[in-house]
Design a protein that fits this description.
There is one protein chain. By secondary structure, the protein is an alpha/beta fold. It has 2 domains: 177 residues, Medium-chain alcohol dehydrogenases, catalytic domain (Quinone Oxidoreductase, Chain A, domain 1, Alpha-Beta Complex), CATH 3.90.180; 136 residues, Rossmann fold, CATH 3.40.50. Strands 3, 6, 7, 8, 9, 16 and 17 form a 7-stranded mixed sheet that branches. A 6-stranded parallel sheet has the order 12-11-10-13-14-15, sandwiched between helices. The relative contact order is 0.15. The mean pLDDT is 92. Bound molecules: zinc ion (ZN) (2 copies).
């Protein structure tokens, strides 16, 4: 095999173990597929869960990823920036050299959800970096050129990370009920997702007052400049303090953490008719008093990433530099295991994007 037909990928070969660099064949695009040369890929906190192969469901139960269609060896990486270098015979015309973000949340294209435009609810998704090889390889196949989203006028690294944390925050905020003057919205968790949401929440809910909740004083300080109030979830009186601030309770809460403490706190923070949207996947289980849901007319919803249409809407918003709040640092992809350790230990403020190096192409 010629060298130019090979590629390097960082792969999970064993659940829970460090990624390994693997040299393998570069794939050929078939049908409507396009081959993308990856220049950069954001490193997402959820990659740590995926590498470990399981999500904690609480009460001693867990989801084993191997049982929901995620198999080894796996090339992760779903915040992908790259350039189209080849297209399959049935792909609509796409200029080689087109650069863009590769939208990763892709459905099978054939089921009733996909055909109805609700690809995100596909039961057999082919998402990049989880179900199909992702951006920690030098090249990847994308099922159709419509998932390559050029983003002129936006910092390309910002756009790449927006395809996961950004669109997740955006889609969750869109699910909240419209707010009247004086309503309060609460964002639980001032990490990457929460700060992304804080940056854009006033564009979607301009009448709402915004409260941010976390247990980490540094993160609360970071959020305090943009929020109307911040609350330390670890403080005993934080629940009653929030209800005082919100004149009885919040119209909406987004839980970007997703552990029993944050879920319980968020549900208790709602006023009648309020809505809790759960986004975080840290895991666990909790007890819910069933009669309170009808008596208080409450809604609980889950929100998982976002749609391609929402990603296009988000890129329009991100043309405003004021919305790009999370700092981004770049590191070589060969440091991927050290990057994971730094994220796991909480040593990263903002986001890390891993950069690939490619040999300079030889002239034809
Ligand atoms: Zn992600
Ligand atoms: Zn489908």
């Amino acid at each position: 095999m010629q060298d130019n037909a090979r590629m390097e990928s960082w792969q999970v070969l064993q659940w829970g173990r460090p990624l390994q660099k693997v040299l393998g064949p570069r794939p050929e695009p078939k049908g409507t597929e396009v081959l993308v040369r990856v220049s950069a890929c954001g490193v997402c906190h959820s990659d740590l869960h995926i590498r470990d192969g399981a999500y904690d469901l609480g009460a001693g139960r867990s989801i084993e990823l191997g049982r929901i269609g995620i198999h080894l060896p796996l090339t992760m990486g779903h915040e992908i920036l790259g350039t189209v270098v080849a297209a399959g015979p049935d792909a609509p015309p796409v200029e080689p050299g087109t650069e863009g973000v590769v939208f990763p949340w892709i459905g099978c294209g054939a089921c009733r959800h996909c055909r109805a435009g609700a690809e995100i609810d596909c039961e057999t998704p082919i998402s990049l970096g989880t179900r199909r090889p992702g951006g920690y390889g030098q090249y990847l196949l994308v099922p159709h050129p419509r998932y390559i989203v050029p983003c002129p006028g936006i910092d390309t690294l910002v756009a790449a990370t927006a395809s996961c944390s950004g669109v997740t925050a955006y889609s969750a905020l869109k699910k909240l009920p419209p707010c009247r003057d004086g309503d309060t919205l609460v964002l639980i968790g001032a990490g990457g997702l929460g700060l992304a949401a804080l940056g854009m929440v006033r564009r979607l809910h301009p009448l709402a007052r915004i409260a941010v909740v976390d247990a980490n004083p540094d993160k609360l300080r970071l959020a305090a400049g943009q929020a109307d109030a911040v609350f330390d979830i670890g403080a005993a009186a934080s629940g009653s303090a929030l209800r005082d601030f919100a004149a009885g309770g919040a119209a909406g809460v987004v839980d970007f953490v997703g552990v029993p403490q944050t879920f319980d706190w968020g549900l208790a923070a709602l006023r009648k008719g309020g809505m809790l949207v759960v986004v975080g996947l840290f895991g666990g289980g909790t007890h819910v008093s069933i009669p309170l849901l009808p008596m208080r007319n409450l809604r609980i919803a889950g929100s998982y990433v976002g749609s391609l249409a929402e990603f296009h809407e988000l890129l329009e918003l991100l043309r405003d530099p004021a919305l790009r709040t999370a700092p981004i640092q770049t590191r070589p992809v060969d440091e991927i295991n050290a990057i994971f350790d730094d994220i796991a230990q909480g040593r990263v403020a903002g986001r890390v994007v891993a950069l690939h190096t490619h040999p300079i192409p030889k002239p034809m």
